[in-house]
Design brief:
The chain is globular and about 70 Å long. The chain has 429 residues and is mostly beta strands. The chain has a nine-stranded antiparallel sheet with strand order 1-10-13-15-4-5-6-7-8. Helix content is 10%, strand content 42%. It has six helices and 24 strands. It folds into two domains: 193 residues, no CATH class; 130 residues, Beta Barrel (Porin), CATH 2.40.160.
């Protein structure tokens, strides 16, 4: 979370004015003493040497240890924010999916939006994306226990090549508090909010936030954050009852919401929040599901044991929730699932596909109303050491009869979260 004032513009202008004189004296012999950012020397960055990025490689199949977080003991802050989505999921990161929307607005004499409600309900359609969280916390705070202060850095990339988020990351690591009264661990966190002053200088306000909902059935955090109770919220808060395991939950999964917003104030030297002012705002916000991918060794054991598992939970399109049930046949490497409608103007569909590593991918989608086009897909990942959860995203586009009276949306994009409910071995006794 950060605030950049207009003094930055003055500094940039001064740099440009002096650029001609600087170019005449490059002082190349002194470059090995100059730091370009953080603690990285200028000479360490080139097309052949990635500097801080060179420490990160794509992990082998399976899950990283939840307590081994990148940069948790180091001094270089840039080593905590690798480009995990284009280079692979870095060790220690929790990775998964997001639905997001971009917003841009301008105001002349309105209240500065930093003091207005940042509600998520909107007619703006959601887009599907990949999402990752990098945690930096005390080593005592693990996937299932502990609480205290730390930081979270999020990164987002769109799954639609035609849609680009206004902001692809949180900008800087966000100060957060992990754990709470209901449950502890890395999955449950909230942004430490800043204290806004009564007067704000004209300039640029750059704000990022993220929060992970509580998994406790006694908490109303997920219910408030999603606009009400439903099957998706019940899957987060472990309200589904399993005869063998009781109230199920997965501490190696985080579900929550995120935001990055930049506001530019232009009306005079000072803007008092209750007097209004002129400003423009650009933002990206949405919801995410991330976690620790299930180790390949466990998935191999389920395949060898000819295990079938049934997962139940819900879907969420940023406004409404629906029911989801998925059956997985590990030996065959296949799955099939059913998504119910999420209320008025939405539709249900059935999907099936294959398993590749810890991921599931659809190869067939059939809508119950209309015909699903080839652009439709379901993607998900087994999460947790024992594949206790599948988290993912669906984007289904329908070809309809162009009936003007139809309220059917052309594309329906939603997150889904399902927890393992039944698991049995098919091998004959």
């Amino acid at each position: 979370m950060k605030t950049r004032q207009t003094i930055i513009a003055a500094a940039v202008a001064a740099l440009l004015i002096s650029s001609t004189a600087f170019a005449k004296e490059l002082h190349e012999d002194k470059w090995n003493h100059v730091k370009s950012y953080g603690n990285v020397l200028l000479t360490d960055d080139s097309v052949d040497n990635w500097g801080p990025w060179s420490d990160f490689v794509e992990p082998a199949a399976g899950a990283p240890s939840p307590v081994q977080m990148p940069g948790s003991g180091g001094s270089d802050p840039y080593k905590k924010t690798p480009d995990v989505l284009t280079q692979g999921c870095a060790t220690g990161d929790w990775c998964g999916y997001a639905i997001f929307r971009d917003k841009s607005k301008e105001s002349g004499g309105d209240y500065p939006s930093v003091y207005a409600s940042k509600g998520m309900k909107s007619k703006t359609p959601m887009n599907a994306g990949l999402f990752s969280l990098s945690f930096v916390a005390d080593p005592s705070i693990t996937a299932g226990s502990g609480q205290g202060e730390g930081t979270v850095f999020w990164r987002l990339t769109s799954l639609d090549t035609l849609v680009a988020p206004n902001f692809t990351d949180s900008g800087t690591p966000i100060p957060v508090y992990f754990g709470g009264r209901r449950d502890d661990g890395l999955h449950h966190f909230r942004t430490v909010e800043p204290e806004y002053e009564a007067f704000m200088l004209s300039g640029i306000t750059d704000t990022s936030s993220a929060s992970g909902f509580s998994h406790s059935k006694f908490s109303q955090e997920a219910e408030w954050g999603l606009g009400g109770r439903g099957p998706f919220e019940m899957a987060i808060s472990a309200r589904y009852y399993d005869a063998d395991k009781g109230w199920t939950k997965n501490d190696e999964v985080a579900v929550g919401k995120f935001m990055h917003e930049v506001e530019t104030y232009t009306s005079g030297e000072k803007v008092r929040y209750y007097e209004g002012g002129s400003y423009s705002s650009t933002s990206t916000n949405g919801y995410f599901i991330v976690g620790i991918a299930t180790p390949q060794s466990y998935l191999d054991s389920q395949r060898a044991g000819d295990v079938t598992a049934v997962y139940r939970g819900g879907s969420f399109n940023a406004t409404r929730q629906g029911c989801v049930e998925i059956e997985v046949k590990f030996r065959q490497g296949t799955w099939q699932g059913s998504w119910s409608p999420m209320g008025k103007g939405t539709f249900g569909f059935d999907a099936s596909g294959t398993i590749s590593g810890s991921k599931i991918q659809s190869d067939s989608i059939t809508s119950r109303q209309g015909v699903a086009t080839a652009s439709s897909y379901v993607q998900g990942t087994f999460l947790g050491q024992t594949a206790g959860t599948i988290g993912g995203v669906s984007s289904v586009t329908l070809t309809t009869n162009n009936d003007a009276r139809s309220l059917m949306p052309a594309t329906q994009t939603a997150l889904f979260l399902v927890n393992k409910s039944v698991s049995y071995n098919n091998t004959p006794k």
